[in-house]
Amino acid sequence: MENLLLEAKDLVKEFPAGRRKKLHAVSGVSLRLYRGETLGLVGESGCGKSTLARLMVRLITPTSGQILMDGIDLTALSDKAYSPYRRRLQMVFQDPYASLDPRMTVRDLIAEPMETFRACPSGKETTRKVRALLEAVGLPQEALYRYPGQFSGGQRQRIGIARAISQDPDLIVCDEPVSALDISVQNQILNLLSDLKKARGMAYLFISHDLTVVRHLSDRVAVMFLGRICETGPTRQVFAAPMHPYTRLLLNAVPRPDPLLGREDLPLLTGEVPSAVDPPSGCRFRTRCPYAREKCAREVPSFAVRDGQEAACHFPLPAPS
Ligand code: SF4
User: How far apart (Å, rounded) are the C-alpha atoms in residues 264 and 93?
Assistant: First the structure.
């Protein structure tokens, strides 16, 4: 499709986990990202979201599978051949402090990617661009020669965002970018991300365990459980009529404006997430699924499709009548 920006095909990432054992962090994930869209990726902690994020921007290499951009498999490129793509695919991390060198000034932190890619002709021109980026992310010009330790968590996240947008990327992978921040600051950063997207037209892969945040920000949503995608589709549609039982149970746990309204009969998500070292056979959600039947232990479910929504379930939930 014309608007296709990035496509993950059957991505697998396994980590060694003791003698002859493997941790199955990502197990056959296929995902498409389109130009200018926000795709929300949700799931409980430990489901493989962050590993998938790191795979998408080549911070780690997959065990198998492909990541395609302009018809080229990025996983097969040498570091040198990947260099132009690195500029186009940026990442914003959960903990901005850990991702910013505390010994560098804000000017140098934001200038670093531009200097690496020789995007500016002179030091003066670079500083001018850094000043414009500070303004774009709502930081004062006095920030230029200060160090990350002199800023609050929200301001540090703004520095991380300025670094990411300095390259005019096509995609920013945001890995839980507000979960370490206070609620009021969270909203400011989310508004900033949404304003920047409107102004610059880039796409986001927005990773969060918080469904409310994802609902507000995303055009489409992908739900992940234990290394696999359970459901994808337009956000409104998935939230209004989930097809996968896991999505349904996650949504049941989201507080509503009137908590007493018709919630008594909703099943809730219970039980622990099974081990990714020894995941359940067939459907990985079956040990927690209230609708599991014998077939669910035997066969890995393929995707059932309904109006652009897809769910990996043998017995998808019906559309509300
Ligand atoms: Fe539940 Fe079976 Fe569907 Fe898995 S395949 S979500 S166990 S009904």
Answer: 38
Strand pairing category for 203-208 and 4-16: unpaired
Cα separation, 71 vs 23, whole angstroms: 30
Q: Which parts of the chain register pLDDT below 70? A: 1-2, 118-121, 256-266
Contact, 52 vs 208, CB < 8 A?
A: no
Both structure tokens of 214: 């994802």
Q: How many Cβ atoms from other residues are within 10 Å of residue 268's Cβ?
A: 9
Length of the chain: 321
Residue having the nearest C-alpha atom to atom 5 of ligand 1: 313
If you write DSSP's letter for every residue of 245-306 in order, what string do you get? HHHHHHHHTS--SSTTSS-TT-----SPPPPSSSPPSSSTTTTT-TT--HHHHHS---EEEE
244-260 pLDDT, tens per residue?
999 999 998 877 665 55
Distance CA 56, CA 66 (A): 10
Largest Cα separation within the chain, whole Å, is: 68
Pocket-testing residue among 249, 288, 289, ligand 1, by greatest number of atoms within 8 A of Cβ: 289
Distances in whole angstroms, Cα of residue 244 to Cα of each of 47, 208, 226: 16, 19, 14
Residue of the nearest CA to atom 3 in ligand 1? 313
Q: How far, in Å, CA of 186 to CA of 178, rounded?
A: 5
Sheet of strand 4-16: strand arrangement? 22-34, 4-16, 64-69, 72-73
**Closest to 104 in 3D by CA, of 130, 132, 136, 137:** 130
